[in-house]
Amino acid sequence: MKKIIIANWKMKLTLNESLELIKKFKEKFKNFQKKEVVVCPSSIILDEASKLLKKTNLQVGAQNVFWEEKGSFTGEISPEMLVEVGCKYVIIGHSERRKYLLENYSMIHKKIKAVLNVDNLIPIICIGEEAEDKKTDKRDFVLVDQLQQALGGINIMENQQIIIAYEPVWAIGSGISIEPSEAEYSHKIIKLALNDMFGMKMINNNFRIIYGGSINSKNVKDFNNLENLDGFLVGGASLDVNEFYKIAKEIF
Ligand code: PGA
To answer: Distance between CA 1 and CA 192 in Å, rounded?
Structure first.
């Protein structure tokens, strides 16, 4: 599968800082032909980001979405609106949203379904175990359970793309990524679970499995040759254009 790298800026920048960074990305990545590089800024800047990055190789993604098409849902943004604003990707179920916004797997499931219901919007579904799950040997169970709850019963069309981001919660923002062999192991578990749900053909054609959690330009080298890895979701290190560029260079 084609590799992908996604920058998740979370709520770490002001709008002016985001715009400045988008311009720097545009300049830095101008010779990056036909590579999948995605920037996920704050939702209120998606429109401007899409306009700035039009006709470049960079794509725009959102950090969240709501599951209904329209209605009395104060403060929410629909999948269709994201498409209208030029988004091609949307992060769903990030562990920070689960923690601070109490997003649960029923909500995540509905969001995935809603996103797959519109054309040309690719969900980036975040899953990953907590430190406690790892300590108590529940990691495999947690990953399979999260995948089943997120995707169980959803019909995926031949032309639809789905990205699963494996992000061990304890590695996010910690500065310490996990052992590459551990990532490889978890990615295999994810593939097995997806195989049970959708079959190998669909995994090969429709799914990409990426890693996220304290990736930087130094440790990315250790992950890059892993067999079951299709890319990275990068938080902290994506706020520095030179650092992010170095990571991207390692991948492509
Ligand atoms: P990090 O964040 O790279 O800062 O660990 C990753 C993420 O939360 O997606």
So the answer is: 17
Three-class DSSP category at 202: helix
> Does ligand 1 have an atom closer than 6 angstroms to the CB of 93?
no
Question: What is the chain's Cα-based Rg?
Answer: 17
Residues lower than pLDDT 70 in the chain: none
Is the distance from CB of 151 to CB of 123 less than 8 angstroms? no
Minimal CA–CA distance to 107: which of 128, 76, 84?
Answer: 76
The pLDDT of residue 1 is 82
Rounded CA gap, 240 and 163, in Å?
A: 24
pLDDT computed for residue 32 by the predictor? 86
Phi-psi region for residue 86, left (φ > 0), alpha (ψ -120 to 50) or beta? left
What's 164's domain CATH number? 3.20.20.70
As a whole number of angstroms, the distance between CA 220 and CA 133 comes to 25
Residues serving a catalytic function are 94, 167
CB 229 within 8 A of CB 209: yes
Cβ(203)–Cβ(161) under 8 Å? Answer: no
In which domain, by residue range, is 127 found? Answer: 4-251
For a ligand 1 pocket test, name from 169, 233, 247 the mutation site with the most ligand atoms within 8 angstroms of its C-beta: 233
Q: Residue 224's pLDDT is what?
A: 85
**Residue to mutate (ligand 1; options 5, 40, 63, 167; most atoms within 8 A of CB):** 167
The domain tally of the chain equals: 1
CA 77 to each of CA 71, 106, 160, 243: distance values in angstroms, whole numbers, following the listed order: 10, 18, 21, 31
Distance of CA 141 to the CA centre of its chain: 21
178 ligand 1 Cβ < 6 A: no
